[in-house]
Amino acid sequence: MNGPTAEGRKRGAAKRAGNGPAAEGRKLSRSFGWLAFLGTLLVIAGIVGLIYTGVATLTSMLLFGWLLLIGGLVALAHAIESRGTNYFWLGVVVAALNLAAGVVVIRHPEGTAEALTMFAALLFLTGGVFRLVGSVVVRGPQMGWTLLQGAFGLLLGLLVLFDWPHSSLYVLGVFFSLALLFDGLGLIAIGIGGRRIVSMVSDRLDDREAGRGAGRGAERLDAPAPATDSPPKAPGDGQK
Fold first, then answer.
1. How far apart, in whole angstroms, are the C-alpha atoms of residue 109 and residue 4?
2. Residues near 187 by Cβ (< 8 Å), separated by ≥ 6?
3. How far are the Cα atoms of 32, 42, 104 from residue 56, in angstroms, in the given order?
4. By C-alpha distance, which of 78, 172, 169 is closest to 120?
5. pTM of this prediction?
6. Higher pLDDT, 74 or 84
7. N or C end of the chain: which has fewer CB within 10 A?
8. What is the per-residue pLDDT across 120-170, written as a single tens digit (0 to 9) for each?
9. Number of Cα atoms under 13 Å in the Cβ half of residue 71
10. In sequence order, what are the residues at sequence separation of 6 or more whose Cβ sits closer than 8 angstroms to the Cβ of residue 16?
């Protein structure tokens, strides 16, 4: 009766010490919880950006400018490390372009937003026209969906282009906010799903360990008594 109790105490002490699959499960569950929390923050930021599209547009432009500056500094550091090679001047040119573009974007975010909005409208127009023409020429099994995508891209490009430059105040902000929103929803789904999977696996491992402990206790209880070294005496041996 003392064997299973001592084994259970040892297992409880190991779990309290942070060893075993239960501790790993708790760590994974905590990590997935942080993912869900980050996704919630991104969803809130996306909703706020959809409400205040002008602020979201300026914020996206400033982030874009700082990313260009950081990329230029990193490229310059790599170019300095690779001096004496054939790629040194190419790295210097790339770093200088990134640094110059970052400074321009940070100093003139409104003008950059207007230029990028015009570029996005032209992309929508050309993409929609190519999809429409390609679907009519190829006539594949997905012709209906391709026609719908082409018409939607063409219509979106025309709407942005006709309202330009006023459309530059909200188009990029809407795209940026939608990207934050969908990324946040994806992280929330991964976090919640991961926590559920870790919980299911931890429960199964706990049940398996409990079953093994019960089986070992039953084996010890059913074990035969140890045999003595001296052989049993015959009935008439003591009377001689």
1. 71
2. 35, 36, 38, 39, 42
3. 28, 13, 19
4. 172
5. 0.62
6. 74
7. C
8. 888 888 888 888 887 777 776 777 777 888 788 888 888 888 878 777 788
9. 14
10. none
- Burial state string for 9-30 with b = 16 or more CB within 10 A and e = fewer than 16: eebeeeeeeeeeebeebeebbe
> Which of 28-42, 108-122, 200-214 is least confident?
200-214
Per cent of the chain over pLDDT 70 is 72
Place of tokens 């993409």: 127
91, 55, 54: which is closest to 74 by C-alpha?
91
**Residue 195 pLDDT:** 78
Q: How many CB atoms lie within 10 A of CB 97?
A: 14
Arithmetic mean of pLDDT, 23-33:
73
CA-based R_g, the chain, Å: 35
Give residue for tokens 């001592």.
6
Average pLDDT over residues 88-109: 86
Q: What residues have CB less than 8 Å from 24, skipping those under 6 apart?
A: none
CB contact at 8 A, 50 and 174: yes
Give CA–CA dist 51/61, Å, rounded: 17
- At 20, the amino acid letter reads G
On whether the CB atoms of residues 174 and 59 are closer than 8 A, the answer is no
Long-range contacts for 207-216 (Cβ within 8 Å, ≥24 apart)?
Answer: 209/11, 213/4, 213/7, 213/8, 213/11, 214/4, 216/3, 216/4, 216/7
